[in-house]
Structure prediction request, 227 residues.
Amino acid sequence: GAGRSSEGESKKVEALASKRVVAVSAGYCHSLALIADGVVFSWGEGESGCLGHGTKRNRSRPGKIEALEGQHVIAVSAGRSYSLAVTANGALWSWGDACFGSLGHNDHLNHLLPKKIDALAGHRVVAVSAGLHHNLALTADGTVWSCGGGYFGQLGHGDGQCHPQPKKVEALAGQRVVAVSAGSEHSLTVTANGAVFTWGGGMYGCLGHGDGIANALLPKKVESLEL
Prediction:
């Protein structure tokens, strides 16, 4: 009957049945759901504070992130054990595990509640992507910013360092980026002219440059996708 599921079948999240969900994001062991009215719900493992409810308790049912009350969220992204949210006014908020500086607050302190990333004040963030320990933020002018773990060069700053607050990816200057995606240890962007740039860890050839497992410390165009 309704509401039942057997092993391997999907099951509706009844706690959100009366809500109009417009976006979701899955982290390692936690989930985020964005509602049409700009409200964010979270559930799953809460040990690092990635649920944003001010505690480290796990939740088996979606709970509204009350700390974002009054903020109209337009995009969410869940990392390994941290979370990101973009609001309609172009601000970027983060919470959870600050390992390698992934929260962008210029510290390595976990945050149990959402906190605005001050380093991006004055810039209008329009999209974000959370990787394992690093994240990418796209601003309205087509600029990419990154912070967090950079041990494989996944931040695109030409080094293998970690950066605890967002820093502009200068190597993409002159490119108008329209989409970003952060993987476990590598990064991808799409530019307005349809080009794809990748950088970071090259395990299994995931960067697409045809050089096996070589890492790339700076963004490099995937030439095989050129028309």
